[in-house]
Amino acid sequence: MKTSTSYQRVGIMGGTFDPIHFGHLVTAEAARCEFGLEKVIFVPTGYPPHKKGCLITDAEYRYQMTVLATNSNPFFEVSRVEIDRPGYSYTIDTIDEFSSFYGSKTELFFITGADAILEILTWKDVDRLLCECHFIAATRPGFQLSRFEEFRPKLPAEGRHRIHLIEVPALAISSTDIRWRVRNNKPIKYLLPESVEEHIYAKGLYRIHSSDVYEKG
Ligand code: ATP
Ligand code: MG
Q1: What is the CA(4)–ligand 2 centre distance, in A?
Q2: Hey, where are the domains in the chain?
Q3: What is the pLDDT of residue 119?
Q4: Best residue among 13, 21, 27 to mutate for probing ligand 1, ranked by most atoms within 8 Å of CB
């Protein structure tokens, strides 16, 4: 039973989700259970600054696939906050929005892959970001935890303890590989939820000359 002084923890899982796959879902669920998160909000990115010049599927399709993939888990939600915000999607802006929405009694935990966390020093307002929220960095196959421990001292001293590493069951799945598989008529079954697979084929996503793919940046 909660009292008015109790804190809650909310997870935020950011990603391009082009498309969302079981690696993302396993990671979010592992983080939720291990850190006692009330829920995990999936935030498909609008215009990711680190993927400038890459081919990215229309945000509406990525949003729809994220909704389809998450709707069987009552602890998962999907937010349009980055999709609806004009300009590049910076994590600090998203965290600021959620912080003001949830207030000071909620601790935010940004869930990411451990590979992505090694890039954190390039993220906008990293010092403030590390003060505003915690990070849960999930290891992906091929990632050595020692790489992060060597990197940790480079982070701002006040925030470096807010990065927590978790190991998730090894799933060597990536969106890049799924897109490649579709383009090359390889199976994608069992790499992502069936509803997402159906959506990909129904909308003709990831075919090389598809008009739903365009260049950003
Ligand atoms: P792409 O290949 O297009 O970069 P991706 O599979 O890396 O796609 P993203 O949408 O870029 O997926 O990832 C969102 C977040 O999920 C990132 O922080 C990424 O590190 C993490 N992530 C992606 N796949 C996995 C996986 N198999 N296991 C653990 N974390 C993952
Ligand atoms: Mg990626």
Answers
A1: 39
A2: 9-211
A3: 86
A4: 27
Domain 9-211: give its CATH code: 3.40.50.620
Q: How far is it, in rounded angstroms, from Cα 35 to Cα 50?
A: 28
Tens digits of residue pLDDT in 30-47:
999 999 999 999 999 988
| Rounded-to-integer distance, Cα 146 and Cα 68, Å | 36
Q: CA-to-CA distance for 57 and 32, rounded, in angstroms?
A: 28
Could you give the CA distance from residue 4 to residue 56 in angstroms, rounded to a whole number? 43
H or E stretch covering 198 = helix 194-203
Residue 49 structure tokens: 């600054």
Query: How many Å lie between the centroid of ligand 1 and the Cα of residue 158?
Result: 27
Composition of the chain by helix, strand, coil, percent to 5: 40, 20, 40
